[in-house]
């Protein structure tokens, strides 16, 4: 595998806005959130394993994962999260690695809100944090998802703190202005990454 860049940031920080720009420059983006949903789709081995571990109640009438029931179960029995993750994490990692290997672009991006929280950072050579203050995160995420500020605050609280992520990231972009400002900050980094990618081979 060539040069792999990990992109992370809290909810609403602008990870997708950033990776959309990288895609417009021809860079392949593997999205850990999308992979996490794919591995529990109908017919996937991880879905069968979840059904075996928890029981038939985790499956909806249409055969898909009943996310709401599972969420409520984990809320009641927090240790169930561990059981679930023991099934899903290896499947997610395997699929991410496969997609990273198949990528054809000069370098490739793995975008994940939990890059540092999970072992996913081991898969990348360099990290970029898309950073924003909490109020900006709240405003953007509530507008995008229609979730209440309280729900988004809970998600932020469950993620690694902003300062810890700032300490760990190799590069940081503060996404506190217009999209044009974000893109203008991404451009010189993209040129740097292209250089790094050339030296990878
Ligand atoms: P994340 O993927 O980190 O959760 P998104 O990239 O989806 O965040 O951004 C959250 C919302 O805010 C989206 O609707 C996005 O279009 C918007 N957004 C992100 N960055 C900016 C910006 N600089 N200016 C205006 N809107 C933005």
UniProtKB/TrEMBL annotation:
Broad EC category: transferase
Record-linked Gene3D superfamilies: P-loop containing nucleotide triphosphate hydrolases (3.40.50.300)
Keyword match Ribonucleoprotein: no
Keywords per UniProt: ATP-binding, Coenzyme A biosynthesis, Cytoplasm, Kinase, Nucleotide-binding, Transferase
An example Gene Ontology CC term for this record: cytoplasm
Cited InterPro entries: Depp_CoAkinase (IPR001977), P-loop_NTPase (IPR027417)
Binding, ATP: 12-17
Cited Pfam families: CoaE (PF01121)
GO biological process entries: coenzyme A biosynthetic process
A GO molecular function held by the record: ATP binding
Subcellular location: Cytoplasm
EC number of the protein: 2.7.1.24
SUPFAM superfamilies reported in the protein's UniProt record: P-loop containing nucleoside triphosphate hydrolases
Catalytic activity of the protein: 3'-dephospho-CoA + ATP = ADP + CoA + H(+)
Pathway(s) this gene product operates in, as recorded in its UniProt entry: Cofactor biosynthesis; coenzyme A biosynthesis; CoA from (R)-pantothenate: step 5/5
Homology family: Belongs to the CoaE family.
Function in brief: Catalyzes the phosphorylation of the 3'-hydroxyl group of dephosphocoenzyme A to form coenzyme A.
Protein name: Dephospho-CoA kinase
Lineage: Bacteria, Pseudomonadati, Pseudomonadota, Gammaproteobacteria, Moraxellales
